Amino acid sequence: MDINYELYKVFYYVATTLSFSEASKQLYISQSAVSQSIKTLEKKLNQTLFIRSTKKVRLTPEGEILLRHIDPAMNLIKRGESQLMESSSTGGQIRIGASDTICRYFLVPYLERFHKEFPGAHIKVTNATSIQCVELLENGQVDLIVVNYPNAYLGNVSNVKKIRTFRDVFIANNAFSELKGQKLTLKQLLKYPILMLDKKSTTSEFLHGLFQQHQLDLVPEIELSSNDLLIDLASIGLGIAFIPDYCIPHKSDNLFVVETEEELPERELAIAYNDQIPVSKGALEFLKYF
Question: Which domains does the chain have, with CATH numbers?
Answer without folding.
Answer: 5-85 (1.10.10.10), 93-165+269-287 (3.40.190.10), 168-265 (3.40.190.10)
